[in-house]
Please model this.
Amino acid sequence: MVLREHALKLRFWPGGRGGQSVDINWDWIHACGHLGIGELRVEDTIGGHNNLRIIFFKPDTDKSSPDAMPLIWILRVLQKKTQSFMQNEIVIFKARRALVMNYMRNQ
Model:
């Protein structure tokens, strides 16, 4: 439940609703940031785990409703101390993004 609360912080995207933002530690993943894939770094210890990363995907959304909160898809949660990702992790992130994109097209 605590991890979900951290992930929900992404709903208050910086600049999202009238410039509202939350103090969250996130960044785009360099190898796939152009695809809208980023990471939220959770600094709390949750269930005995620390250095948790929530890998998320933020698709381009419809701008017709300025009050709508951004849609964020969680692709993976992992424990990681280093800043870099291995190539197989990047492949997994991109594949999961493709699954989300396919789902969104079929809705």
In short: Residues 87-105 form the longest helix (19 residues). Residues 15-21 have pLDDT under 50 and may be disordered. The first strand starts at residue 26 and ends at 28. The radius of gyration is 14 Å.
